[in-house]
Amino acid sequence: MIKHNKEKQDLNKEKDSQKADEKSQSNHTTDKASNDAENKLAEEEDKTESDAETDEQVEDQPVDEKELLINTLQMKNNELNDKYLRLFSEFDNFRKRTIREKQELTKTASAGIIEAILPVVDDLNRAYKSAIENPDLETLTEGLNLIRTKLNSTLKHKGLEEIPCLGEEFNTDFHEAITHIPAENEKDKGKVIDEVQKGYILNGKVLRFAKVVVAN
Prior knowledge:
It contains 3 helices and 6 strands, in the order αααββββββ. The strands form 2 sheets. It has a 3-stranded antiparallel sheet with strand order 1-4-5. A 3-stranded mixed sheet has the order 2-6-3, with no helix packed on it. The chain folds into 2 domains: 19-109; 111-215, Head domain of nucleotide exchange factor GrpE (Nucleotide Exchange Factor Grpe, Chain A, domain 2). By secondary structure, it is an alpha+beta fold. The radius of gyration is 59 Å and the shape is elongated. The protein has helices spanning 2-108, 111-132, 138-157; strands at residues 160-162, 175-181, 192-197, 200-202, 205-208, 210-215. Helix content is 69%, strand content 13%. Helix 2 (111-132) runs antiparallel to helix 3.
């Protein structure tokens, strides 16, 4: 009897011990599950924050690329604008230079021909002067004068002008002194007192210097 009671007590103790172990194990499992849940929640929060930061970076990236593209296009536009302005300026200068050269060419194109005609003009003028001194050559004089007038008018229309000489101050820009003689009075000093050969200006430029005599 006593032995039976002891076995029963031992059995109860063993059951109590098992229950305690099961309870401890259950508590441990619960704690572990709780910790796992907390860790998982923390991981989810970290992941959420990381995803949010990534989303912000993704959202910011297109803005940066857009600004970069705008800046690049602006730089290219400025470069093209500068090139256009330079080309326009060069073309405008070329156009103006071409116009000037064309005008100069137009003015001087006939210079060689007119210069070659000048000796004929000289001969015609001398013939006219000789003819007017002879009354018997009145008809010839009139003919020569008509030819001379028409020729001079044509040359003047082409831009040819006579260089003023007699009574003018000697000017090396227009006159070529072939000789110097003493002046008869003070006011004639430095002036042209005789014209040996006429000088001409063609379109503002000296075509032939006038050959003159200067009083000193």
